Structure formats: structure tokens, C-alpha cells
Amino acid sequence: MNSPVDAQSRQSLRLLLVAGPHHLAGQDLRGLMEFLQDQRSQFDLSLSIADPQKQPELLELHRLVATPALVKLEPPPKQIFAGNAILKQLQSWLPRWRQLGMVSGLGVGLRAVEPSGGPSERELQLEDQLLVLRQENETLTSRLGVQERLLRMVAHELRTPLTAANLALQSYRLAQIDRDRFFDVVDRRLEDIAQLSHDLLEVGSTRWEALFNPQRLGLAPIAAEAILELEKLWVNRRLELITDVPSDLPDVYADQRRMRQVLLNLMENALKFTPDGGRVSLTLLHRTSQWVQVSVCDSGPGIPTEEQQRIFQDRVRLPQTAAQAPGFGVGLSVCRRIVEVHGGRIWVVSEPGEGACFHFTVPVWSGQSG
User: Does 322 map to a domain?
Assistant: First the structure.
């Protein structure tokens, strides 16, 4: 066991952890916090924690492409660790910081190089600088990729209100809905498009997740609205449309527009891939005291087991369904990001030829501050 370092000789280290509440509650960050607590005997450690939704400017300031992220502010150079391996990355870098005297207050230099032919102090410094430059290059490359995906996702999001407005127009022309209902749908979808256009401008200076506005929300009205807006996809098809929404379902803590988007995406997919005379169901269940589970099931072609994880990735489309519906294949990826930003998870249960059930969870409202 290492003996504590004298307080006056401890190395100074200032860190910033950018993470939301759902990240901080996870096992990975709990392990990171415990590790940093153990390091206080070796370092004069200062750790600040910032919520990216409350301080989105930090994402741009530090060029963060993913959260949670740990930023070494002092001593220079600044370094950023992000993703699921922050603790492992930090553990590998701490010995280098001590060895090279990169932290302030050390007060001693490296020992002279032994005649054994080991690397010189200058070589170690150059190697360290090279590692930092590589890390910054990877961060910038990732940032460009993220921006491309964000723009593609927002473009896909625009399809949802446009599709709803187009379906309303077709229904109105066929006298399936009245004039007031038609104008109501179009007005609300135009509002969605205006907000999405604003988001499209914002993604260049902030992160997609920072555009969320969670609040106390009832899911039942949103589910009913989604079914009505997609009426054109299920009327006159002999479909069995089943809804199971408990009367005592609790409110959730979520972004209303994004929840509608997830429900519309999942319901639209279910209706498109279910043959005439098939069955589609929408179930809302108070799974635990903390989560509401939403399930959308269909009797379509199903999804092969080996594809069930890939479908939530960017631009993945299944060969057996690609010809049935147009699009860029990012709808489920958008749904995954929305659900995960809310702290929930999304998954699919399916057998080929026996349909598919998509499930996702949303946190129950319990007095959270919006």
C-alpha cells in the first residue's frame, strides 16, 4: 500500500467531469469517483461536476463529442477522456503525469537517465506530446462524424411532421377527416417543422442532446395523437389495432416533442411492415416505481436475431424490409438516442416470421426540476 504524500508536496490536479444525473448514477462513474477519492492522498485534487443540459456551453468550449467526459484542466495541456472507459484511460495516464512532472507543485525533476540506454527526459516529453496530439486528432475526427450524424438525424426528424401532414392531406381529400381536424394537424406539424429548423441551426454550435426540454408529461394523450395521425396507414386494411393504456398510468419526465417522435416512428414502422389483416398493438405499462415501459408490437416479417442490435445503429436497414419503405434508415437510431438521453433504454424482441415488439422505458415524473 502506498504511503500518503506530504500535503505540501502533493501534485496539483484540476478536473472537470461533464455528466448528467443518469450518468452519475451509473456504475462506471461511481467507480471513477471512488478511484479519484483514493488519489487525494497523492494529488492536490480539485474535481468539478457539471450537468451538460444545464451548462451546454461547456460542450462547445471543450469540444466534447460525447458525455460523460472528464477534462483535465490543469496542469496543461488540457486532455479529455470520454465514453465508457474513462477510468481505464485515467489510470493509464496518472503515472505519466507524475513521471514527467506535468502537474504543478511537484518541485522536483526527473531522475537522470541511467546508462542502461533508457529514454531521455526530452524523448519522454515528446512521446507524451505526441499522445496528446493523437488524442486531439481523434476527438476532432469524432466531432466531424458526430456533426454529420446529427445533421442527418435532424433531416430524418423533418420527415415525421411532413409525413403526418401529407397523410392528413390525403385523408382530407378523401373526406375521411373534416376541415377543422385537417387544419389542426397541419398547424401543429408546421410548428414542429419550425422547431426542427431551429434545431438544425443549433447543432452547429451545440450538441443534439442539449436541445431537449424534459417536463412533466402524460404519455396517454401523445399515444392517442400518434395513432390518429397515422390513421391513413391503418384504416380500410382490416388491421387489428390494440391499445392498452392503464387509467392510473403515472406521468413521466420527458420532452413532449421527442416522445411523440419516438411513438410516431415506432407506430409507423409497425403499420408499414404489418400485412393487411394483421395485428399491431401499443401498450403502456407502469413497470416499476421509476419507469414506464412503452411497447409497440406488430405481426410483420420479424427481425433476425443477428440483426437485432444493428438496427439501432446509424443508417442500418435490413435487406428484407429495405424495399418496403423509403428513407435513410436512421429512424430507430434516432429513437435510441432520444430514449437514452432520457436515461431509458430501447430494445427489440423478435422471431423471424412472427413479428417484432419494440420496447422502451421513460422515467416516471417524481418532482424533477425541468
Answer: yes
Instruction: Tell me how many domains the chain contains.
Output: 3
- How far CA 29 is from CA of 3, 25, 144, 312, 315, in Å, comes to 26, 7, 26, 25, 30
283-300 confidence digits (pLDDT tens)? 999 978 889 999 999 999
Q: What's at 353, amino acid-wise?
A: G
- Burial label for 7, CB within 10 Å (0-12, 13-18, 19+), is exposed
Q: Evaluate whether 245 touches 360 at the Cβ level (below 8 Å).
A: no
Other CB atoms within a 10 A radius of the CB of residue 350 amount to 21
Strand partners, 55: none
Distance CA 263, CA 26 (A): 27
**Domain that residue 192 falls in:** 143-211
DSSP codes, 258-327: HHHHHHHHHHHHHHHHSPTT-EEEEEEE--SSSEEEEEEEE-SS---GGGTTGGGSTT---HHHHTTS-S
Q: What does the DSSP assignment read for 110-125?
A: PPPPPTTTPPPHHHHH
Pair (202, 314) in one structural domain: no
Strand partners, 292: 362
DSSP 342: T
Helix (H, G, I), strand (E, B) or coil at 212: coil
In the numeric block, the cell 419494440 is attached to 358
Peptide bond into 352 cis (omega under 30): no
Residue type, 354: E
Tell me the chain's radius of gyration from C-alpha atoms.
26
Q: Which of 211, 237, 262 is the last residue of a domain?
A: 211
CATH code where residue 233 lies: 3.30.565.10
Q: Residue 52 above 50 pLDDT?
A: yes
CA distance 85 to 64: 15
Distance CA 338, CA 208 (A): 10
pTM: 0.49
Specify the CATH number for the domain of residue 19. 3.40.30.10
Q: Which residues contact 11 (CB under 8 A, 6 or more apart)?
A: 42, 43, 44, 97, 98, 103, 104, 105, 106
Instruction: Tell me the average pLDDT across 7-34.
Output: 82
- Residues 186 and 244 placed together within one structural domain of the fold: no
